[in-house]
Amino acid sequence: KAKIAVLISGAGTNMAALVYASRIGDCPYEVVLVASNDAQAPGLALAAAEGIATFAHPHKGMTREAHDAAMEDAVRQAGADYIVLAGYMRILSDDFVERWQGRMLNIHPSLLPLYKGLDTHARAIAAGDSHGGTSVHLVTPELDAGEVLAQVRVPIVTGDTPHSLAERVKLAEHQLYPRAVAEYVSRWRNPAWLLERLRERALALPETS
Ligand code: GAR
């Protein structure tokens, strides 16, 4: 099984969805660590109660690089192959992201490329959009700009507030994220993915005649 470290900052409901999905059937990943920049994050207590290793390292009073290094150490010690961000509300330093590129996923509560950054639900409602949603994407140094792996659209209904929309989007996230992570860590077994990589390789080869 692929080993994943989940990074959280808050409630950790997506982390919980990842953990419970990992215990059903032959899920191709297992959660080996839940780490947070906030020792009080409710998700940490839940992970501990579930018997999962936890790590907390507050970011106050230290540089971004030093904090990222502490998180990365914990991830490596746990033996994780992938980092899965689930409501981790810190921007990561470029070096850290580059070392994990292709092995770090995030879930963002909008239909990317719409509404990168914060307050996604308020912005979708204010724009009069018919739908909000959520996107699972690869993490790259540019914020919320990596390749989108999967999305779910969620309708915005009359009377919605950012809070009510966020709750509805979270329901969709809890379905989407475990499935997207499972598919991603098993991508080697997907013929379409393999063909695409072979095609890329072939196109990158120098012309021979
Ligand atoms: C989720 O909706 C996630 O998409 C969002 O924070 C929430 C975390 O909820 N992430 C971001 O906004 C990242 N920029 P949770 O702690 O209950 O999983």
Model description:
With 209 residues, this protein is an alpha/beta fold. It is 40% helix and 21% strand. It has helices spanning 13-22, 42-49, 64-77, 94-99, 120-126, 162-185, 191-204; strands spanning 2-8, 29-36, 54-56, 82-85, 104-108, 131-138, 148-155. Strands 3-2-1-4-5-6-7 form a seven-stranded mixed beta sheet, with helices on both faces. The chain is globular. The relative contact order is 0.14. Glycinamide ribonucleotide binds next to helix 1, strand 5 and helix 6.
List descriptors:
7 strands, 209 residues, binds glycinamide ribonucleotide, 7 helices, alpha/beta, 40% helix, globular, single chain, 7-stranded mixed beta sheet
Q: Can you summarize this structure?
A:
The protein is α/β, with parallel strands linked by helices.
Small-molecule binders: glycinamide ribonucleotide
Count of helical regions: 7
Shape: globular
CA distance, first residue to last residue: 44 Å
Structural class: alpha/beta
Largest sheet properties: 7 strands, mixed
Mean pLDDT over the full residue set: 96
Estimated radius of gyration? 18 Å
GO molecular function: phosphoribosylglycinamide formyltransferase activity
Enzyme class: transferase
Binding site for N(1)-(5-phospho-beta-D-ribosyl)glycinamide: 12-14
Family: Belongs to the GART family.
